[in-house]
Amino acid sequence: MRNEAVSPPAPSSNPQPTHATKKRLLEAGLAMLLQQGYNDLGVQAVLDATSTPKGSFYHHFESKEDFALQVIDEYMKGVHAGLDACLGDEARPPLDRIRRFFEMTQQHYRSEGYMGCLLGGLGQELSGVSDVFRRRIEKCFSRIAERMAVCLEEARRRGDIPAESDPRQMADVLVDCWEGAALRSRLRRNPAPLTAMLDFYFRSAAAR
């Protein structure tokens, strides 16, 4: 990875950090990391895009790496909020809840111009050169799969999927397939790979 050229300034004697500043930086960082990736993103570009002084950035983040890791954490807050809303909707059957989560994610991708998943993009870029990012991103994927597995276990108990199904294995495969489809969707700039993947997976999952 390229080392970030911008170095932290000397500590200010009267810093005025705000939560709003950090939020603005994280939001800008998410959009810029999706578009440019980690290596091509400079701290100065984030400062310029948000009209933020260098001192404010380094009050909230120790380094560019720390900034990107916190962007991932912020991204995951949105993912878990979506999981809460969809998987917790007990008015729907469990398989419908899971599919609804991915359909909402697909709508979000559309609003961003099919830039895809931040985890997938950074994972492809950095997993071979940074154990820190590799471990963090794998942990995020694992947590998503864990939550999916709970819903798939409910589907198994209801008889919606075969009794011999392994919910955690199915959840891991689902996350893996989605990430591959998200990449193809980004390459094509259209939702077709995402829709085809969901149709195939849920048709196969319920086959008995």
Describe this structure in words.
The protein is an all-alpha fold and 208 residues long. It has a domain of 135 residues: Tetracycline Repressor, domain 2, CATH 1.10.357. 71% of the residues lie in helices and 0% in strands. It contains 9 helices and no strands. The longest helix has 28 residues. The N terminus is likely disordered.
Short description:
By secondary structure, the protein is an all-alpha fold.
What is the CATH superfamily of the domain at 71-205?
A: Tetracycline Repressor, domain 2
Largest sheet: none
Q: Structural class, please?
A: mainly alpha
User: How many strand segments?
Assistant: 0
Q: How large is the radius of gyration?
A: 19 Å
Helix percentage range: over 70%
Q: How would you spell out the order of helices and strands?
A: HHHHHHHHH
Question: What is the terminal separation in angstroms?
Answer: 48 Å
**CATH architecture descriptor text of the domain at 71-205:** Orthogonal Bundle
Indicate the overall shape.
Answer: elongated
- Mean pLDDT, rounded to whole units? 91
The number of helical elements comes to: 9
> What name does CATH use for the topology of the domain at 71-205?
Tetracycline Repressor, domain 2
Unreliable residue runs: 2-18
Tell me what portion of residues adopts beta-strand conformation.
under 5%
Q: What's the CATH class of the domain at 71-205, please?
A: Mainly Alpha
Write the layout of secondary structure elements.
Elements: H1 19-36, H2 43-50, H3 54-60, H4 64-87, H5 94-111, H6 118-126, H7 131-158, H8 167-188, H9 192-205
Helix pairs in contact: 1-2, 1-4, 4-5, 4-7, 5-7, 5-9, 6-7, 7-8, 8-9
